[in-house]
Amino acid sequence: MVISFTVLFQRLASQLRRLEQSQGALRLTKEEAEQARALAEETNRQHLEAQRIGKIGHWYADEATQSSTWSPQMFELVGIPPKPALSAEEARSFIHPDDIAAFMEARQRAIITRTTMRIENRWVRADGETRWVNIELRPKHGAAGEYLGVFGTSQDITDRRRAEEQLIDAIEAISEGFVLFDRDDRYRLTNTKYREMYPELADMFVPGTPYEKMLRTGIARQSWVIEDDPEEWIRQEVEWHRTASGARERRLTDGRRTRLTVPHTHGGGIVGIRTDITELRRSEEALKAAQQQLSDAIESISEGFVLFDREDRYVLTNSNYRRLYSGIADPSVRGASFESVMRAKIASAVHKFGAQRAEAGR
Fold this sequence. Notes:
- By secondary structure, the protein is α+β, with helices and mostly antiparallel strands.
- It has three domains: 110 residues, PAS domain (Beta-Lactamase), CATH 3.30.450.20; 103 residues, 2-Layer Sandwich (Beta-Lactamase); 65 residues, no CATH class.
- It is 46% helix and 21% strand.
- The chain contains twelve helices and 13 strands.
- Strands 3-2-1-6-5-4 form a six-stranded antiparallel sheet, sandwiched between helices. A five-stranded antiparallel sheet has the order 8-7-11-10-9.
- The longest helix has 50 residues.
- It is elongated, with a radius of gyration of 42 Å.
- The relative contact order is 0.05.
C-alpha cells in the first residue's frame, strides 16, 4: 500500500499536535500539583504558626509502636530539641509526678468510652520550670473496632492559671462570701468565706453546677427558712438571680441571716456577695427592745414628759404630754425644733404671755 507524502505529513502533524497537547496537559498537571503542594505547605505553615501563637501543640501516641510523634510546638513547650519520635515513657516523663495518675485515668476513660476527654495538669520542662497544660485526648479505632492510638492537643495555659490564682487571692481577701456564676447561671468559683457560710452545700461547689440545683439541694437539706411554696420560692430566686434586681435577705435554719446581692459582670456572669448580717439584726432587735422599754417607762410617768436632743430638736414624748398640748400635736414630731414647738404653742394660745405681762404690771 502506497501512502502519499501529503498523507504521511498530515498524520505526523496530527501526532505532533497530540504530543504537544499531552505535554501541555502534563505541564498543567504539574503546575496544579505544585500549586497544591505549595498551598498545603503554606496551610501547614500557617497552622503551625497559629499553634505557636496559641501555645498549642499536637501529638499522636501509636499503640502498636508504643511511641509518640510531636509537632514543633510540643518540643517548645517542654524545652527540648525536636526529634522524629519519643517513646511512650519519654513522652510521659514531662508530666508532673503528682498529675500522672489523673492523666492516665483520663486517657483510659477516653479509650473505653471512645469520646474526647479533657484534663488540665502540670508539665515540668527540661529546665525545671512547671507549666500548666490543657490536654485534649481523642482515641483512634480501626474499622474492626481495635484501638490504634490517641491523638492529642496540648495548650500551655500557665498565664491563664496564674491570672486565676491572682483572682482567687483577691477574692480570698474579701471579708464577705464571694461566688461567681457564668452567663448560664452555672457555678464557677467561690472563696473560703462563702464555703464557710454554707458548709452543708460543699459538694455543690463544683464548676458547672446550676444555681437552681444548688437551691433545690439547699431546700432538701433544710438550709433556709422558707415560708412560701418551695417551687414558687425557687422560681422567684432564680429570676432574681438572673436579673440582679436589688438585694435580698435570707434566713438560715440555724438562726443566721445573710444579705445577698448579685451584680452582673460585663460578660454576663453573675457575682454573688453574701454578707452575714446576723449580729446587725440582733443589734437592731436589741435596740428596738430597748426603745420599747424606754417608751414603756416614760408612759408610766404621770406627768407630761418630752425629750429634746443636743440640737434642741424633738425626740419623743409620752401620751400625758400630748394630752396637755393636744392642740399642737403636729409640730411635736421627731426632728421639730424647740423654737417651732414654742411658736406653735403661742399661736395656739396654749401660752398667753401677754396676759402674764399685764398681771405682773399691776
